[in-house]
Design a protein that fits this description.
The protein is α/β, with parallel strands linked by helices. It folds into 2 domains: 159 residues, 3-Layer(aba) Sandwich (Rossmann fold); 70 residues, no CATH class. The protein has 9 helices and 9 strands. The protein starts with a strand and ends with a helix. Bound molecules: adenosine-5'-diphosphate and magnesium ion (MG). Adenosine-5'-diphosphate binds next to strand 2 and helix 1.
Length: 256
């Protein structure tokens, strides 16, 4: 069953004087319950735009986005969703437990429940030994992990992660990957974006390839490789994107 759904979802950014930038163009996406789904695409391909539309941070130009059947502004639905933005900023004089307490207060979680949850989350993201350390002394990998813990504070069924491994070293990537697999085992649905191919290849059940705001292909990696006669994700990426660009070039040529 599709727990996240977009129908002809479109976002045009209007930059004044008739200048329009396509953020997303008529994207139909379905993410099933319990899967890790990766939105893949180069920088500027519409990944963040798509996630923000789903979360109600941006409003669509046309089309529709739904999570658990609800529209993005539905408050009740938001209780079930965790979000890790692309470049999160934290009050870095706080330590891990203090940051998580702050997020717990945003969800009006009772202090006793919050305390237990924070202990569990610090254990999960392996930051229990760094409880007293202020965030300004964290490594990038630690920041990513505390961010993940923060996005899990309300024990959401759905996690939306924008570029969760960008800027991490191989160990940081591996830790995040293992964490995502653990969360999947707990039954969570994870929608993540990435421009980092090999990371996604290893954890995602299904992927979607975005380019210039368009959804070019979606499916399992094996299925897509077969369909496009690609050897691996990199090859698939190049094949779908080049095919699209060539088609566009023909269209532009025709219209001249
Ligand atoms: N606030 C904005 N105003 C104008 N253009 C934007 C804005 N946000 C994104 N864009 C444009 O929309 C396109 C998609 O951007 P984005 O969704 O951030 O891509 P990605 O996350 O894949 O890097 C890009 O061309 C980008 O320049
Ligand atoms: Mg982005």
């Amino acid at each position: 069953m599709a727990i996240i759904l977009t129908k002809q979802l479109t976002k045009h950014y209007f930059l004044g004087r008739k200048k329009i930038v396509i953020g997303l163009e008529k994207v139909n996406l379905e993410v099933n319950e319990g899967e890790i789904f990766g939105i893949l695409g180069p920088n500027g391909s519409g990944k963040t735009t798509c996630l923000k539309l789903l979360l109600g941070i941006l409003f669509p130009t046309s089309g529709e986005a739904r999570i658990m059947g609800k529209l993005p502004h539905d408050i009740e639905m938001k209780q079930h969703v965790g979000f890790l933005p692309e470049n999160p900023y934290y009050y870095d004089y706080l330590n891990g437990p203090e940051l998580l307490s702050f997020y717990a207060s945003l969800f009006s979680i009772e202090p006793l429940v919050a305390k237990k949850r924070i202990d569990e989350l610090l254990e999960l993201v392996e930051l229990n030994n760094a409880r007293r350390l202020a965030l300004r002394h964290y490594s990038k990998g630690m920041l990513e992990r505390i961010g993940l813990a923060a996005s899990l504070i309300n024990d959401p069924e759905i996690l939306i992660l924008d570029e969760p491994t960008t800027g991490l070293d191989p160990i940081g990537c591996r830790d995040t990957r293992n964490l995502l697999l653990k969360l999947k085992q707990q039954g969570k649905t994870i929608l993540l974006s990435s421009h980092f191919l090999s990371e996604v290849e290893r954890v995602c059940d299904r992927i979607a390839i975005f380019h210039r705001g368009y959804l070019l292909a979606t499916g399992t990696l094996d299925g897509l490789n077969r369909q496009y006669q690609a050897e691996n994700l990199e090859d698939l990426f190049v094949k779908t994107i080049c095919a699209f660009d060539n088609q566009e070039a023909v269209k532009t040529g025709e219209s001249k």
